[in-house]
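ENTRY TYPE: protein
CONTENTS: sequence, structure tokens:
***
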Amino acid sequence: MPPSKLRLAAAIVAALLLPGGGELVLGRRRRGLLYAAPFLLLVGAGLLLLALRGPVGIAALVVTPGVLPLAGGLNLALSLYRAATFALFIATLRPALL
């Protein structure tokens, strides 16, 4: 049985907010957790860094030579990952959206 239009809308919003979120809303737990894991690990690492160094320590780390390009590359990679997971999610919904 295909998901309702309301559930599809909720899944699309969840997929925009969290990679794998749409999969989780639709009950595809394994796939959703697989997509969400890298993002959640990165968020956890950021929170750990915040707890260990504090905001001033993170600011000092970011302006260290060589770290800013790395942070930019990481941001670009994360953006591409989020776009890819959203595109894959929409591709799996295509029959239900038509």
